[in-house]
Amino acid sequence: MTGRAVVAGPAGHPPRCTLDDGTVVVVKDGAAEPGSVPAEAAGLRWLAVPGGPPVARVHGADDTLLVTGLVEPGPATPAGAERLGRGLAVLHAAGAPALGAPPPGGPADAWIGHARMGDHPHDGPWGAWFAAERVLPYLRAARDRGALDPAGAAAIERVCGRIGDLAGPEEPPARLHGDLWSGNVLWAADGDGWLIDPAAHGGHRESDLAMLALFGLPHLDRVLAAYDERVGLHQLFPLLVHAVLFGGGYGDAAAAAARRL
């Protein structure tokens, strides 16, 4: 897969191997989510744009195994956070063919975490796509598993009904990481924030920034800058994904975010 022999490993968490040229790599098994490895590999390659944030290098991939470079951990620094913010602006400006478009070579049936996510190009307004493809499917699933009560579901449905008024001006589709919570930013020894584990697709640039805010990020104020006006709207999707996957208070949090809009 990589063209190199493994001389040590796998060991550790995440599993690491040493190749015969001394390179240490991370090996991820995606067998439990069919299609997730091709989607992630295509996403990592697509996100690696000149001037953008550093992205874990893909050394090899097949249908179930992904081999990426190891990011040596380090502290988050204000300067690194500023570099991440500038890099994200470059990444988003690199654009996408359409809202919902998958990375080149990536499957339309992708994943976000352990939840399915469809990547189907859409040529209409962002708000209509976001409601239909990123909010309502997960709202229904969260309600079906009992993670969202009827009143909370109704609040989110009301937001979808007026999403054209909430979405702001139309923009060209941005190139999104798609699952940019703080755990998918690895701070390296030099202070840079590296991107891993994407659910990459074409979307609205504020969606990435809103997800960073959802679970917190060191020096977040330096990253977000002027991108925080519609954070709650963009957080509906990841909150509903978590309601589907984990239940708990995520459904209530999604409803609360909707009520603030």
Automatic annotation (TrEMBL):
Matching InterPro entries: Fructo-/Ketosamine-3-kinase, Kinase-like_dom_sf
Keywords: Kinase, Transferase
Transmembrane is among the record's keywords: no
The keyword Transferase belongs to this UniProt entry's keyword annotation: yes
Leader sequence segment: none
GO molecular function: kinase activity
Family, similarity comment: Belongs to the fructosamine kinase family.
Designated name of the protein: Fructosamine kinase family protein
Origin species: Pseudonocardia spirodelae
